[in-house]
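In this section we walk through a basic example: taking a raw amino acid sequence and producing a predicted 3D structure, encoded as discrete structure tokens. The instruction is simple. Fold the sequence below.
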Amino acid sequence: MDQLTPYKPSSYQLRDFMNVSLDSIRMLIKYVDTTNEIPMLAHYALIRSAVEATSYGIWMLNAGTKQKQAWLSLRLSYENNEDIEGMEKVFATAQMTPPNRNDVRVRLVALQQQLSDYRNHDISKTPTTTDVVAQADRFMSGKRMVITGLQTWKACSGTAHANGDVISALLERVPTGHADALGLTFRLTSRVTLTAGFLLVAVENAEELLRLFEEASKPTATRMKVKR
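The resulting token sequence is shown next.
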């Protein structure tokens, strides 16, 4: 597949997905081991990042044909190019001249034209993250212990965006016994069971992505021999 995506080889993208995921999972586990406590909210963003990154990798590697995998990879490269162009504009100064991002667009479209099955598709249209996470869940059917990736990603996104309603729904509320004109007051703590369930989803995704990546990295003859 890398031969079809030489601008940003697909294997590089997949490694990025795994690196983001494993680093996020490792940071959370190390924090809990070191402090013997669970953060109230911060860990949800780490889990969200891990689930999102691995979902993209699972989605890409389950695309079927090499051409379709390459097509999905090129679309992500196109979207990433748009994103970094926006970042470069924010950081641009008189001493900093960003590269011509249109050259990258032209290159990616040229690579798209080499994919006979997808040369007439719109490379600028990329799926939403919600769609990608949901699709990854379908590929993970039968491999989940309890919670789905979409449930995890939605819940953790709510806390990452400081959605008060989501925060109230996820956290454990313990009455303090005090009240004021607005009502009772509560002490908020993270729910251990939810945290464990959400983290399990991230680990399930990471293990599946690693398995798929290792399988895809084998020589074709080896993969055929294993399937027999």
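Looking at the output, two observations stand out. Residues 224-228 have pLDDT under 50 and may be disordered. Residues 30 and 36 are 10 Å apart (CA to CA). In the next section we compare this with other chains.
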